[in-house]
Design goal:
heterodimer, A: mainly alpha, Arc Repressor Mutant, subunit A, 2 domains, 3-stranded antiparallel beta sheet, B: mainly alpha, two-stranded antiparallel sheet, 7 helices, 5 strands, about 60% helix, globular
Chain lengths: ~110, ~150
């Protein structure tokens, strides 16, 4: 099973050619942050972020950051997080199912007593 | 076309009845907000039903999904990694014009950076990348099989 990274509304997949730090920065880039903003968030030098993003651009064979985001989405290295949302909804419904069943049983008993 | 318009008109008349918060199209219940979205979407789809896509390189852009033709053309170029100046040269317009149209597209999608613009446009399926991968990967897979067999 590939490991996934979730950042904001976006989801990144390890094991598809990009390293952990590259995917982390790429996900933030896709949300519209600049290299300097990412660096401040991680407590790094901006040049470190630029270096990792440049490396990811080299791996994807492009020369601009916007093209990198497009290429990464095309190769499904990153994608919007609808799948994770669906999973959360499913889990919530599973958790909520048990109280719902208990309520139904209680109501059945009430009807039976009447 | 006309039948759909009559149908939506009927729904609107139904909506004006007092006390009815929910109305339906084709049997499904919709709130007023959802109905508004649906009508807007369907109208948009009708308007652009004739010429709906723009191709640029390995990318396809869909008109009628919120961006204008020029915005979409420049966005497709941005997604391929061109700068505003390069786009301006290829379209024979001023660089400021390109920046303006891209800024307008960013405003429409509610983002402030070009990278986020590309990501948001792909998420909304305004632009879609055609995969070249089947052609290179097919022969490559076969050759790999050959290597494994040998």
């Amino acid at each position: 099973m590939e490991e996934t990274i979730i950042s904001g509304d976006w989801q990144g997949f390890l094991g598809r050619g990009l390293a952990l730090r590259e995917i982390q920065f790429l996900l933030l880039l896709a949300q519209g942050l600049t290299a300097k903003e990412i660096a401040k968030g991680f407590g790094l030098a901006p040049s470190t972020v630029v270096k990792r993003l440049s490396n990811a651009m080299f791996k994807l064979g492009v020369h601009r950051q916007s093209a990198m985001v497009a290429e990464a989405m095309k190769r499904q290295i990153i994608c919007p997080v609808c799948v994770a949302l669906a999973a959360v909804i499913v889990i919530k419904s599973m958790v909520d199912d048990q109280p719902a069943f208990q309520n139904r049983r209680l109501s059945d008993r009430r009807i039976a007593t009447r | 076309m006309t039948s759909r318009r009559f149908k939506t008109a009927g729904c609107l008349i139904g909506a004006s009845q007092p006390g009815s918060q929910e109305i339906g199209i084709d049997g499904e219940k919709l709130s007023l907000m959802q109905l508004g979205d649906r009508l807007y979407w369907e109208n948009n789809r009708e308007v652009h039903s004739m010429e709906s896509t723009i191709k640029s390189g390995t990318w396809i852009g869909h008109l009628g999904r919120g961006l204008a033709r020029r915005e979409l053309q420049f966005l497709l170029s941005v997604a391929q990694g061109l700068t505003a100046k390069q786009i301006a040269r290829s379209f024979d317009v001023e660089p400021g014009t390109v920046v303006k149209r891209i800024s307008n597209a960013m405003f429409k999608l509610g983002v402030h950076r070009q990278t986020a613009l590309v990501a948001e446009a792909m998420r909304r399926e305004i632009i879609v990348g055609m995969s070249e991968s089947p052609n290179p990967q097919g022969p490559a897979g076969e050759s790999n099989d050959g290597v494994f067999i040998a």
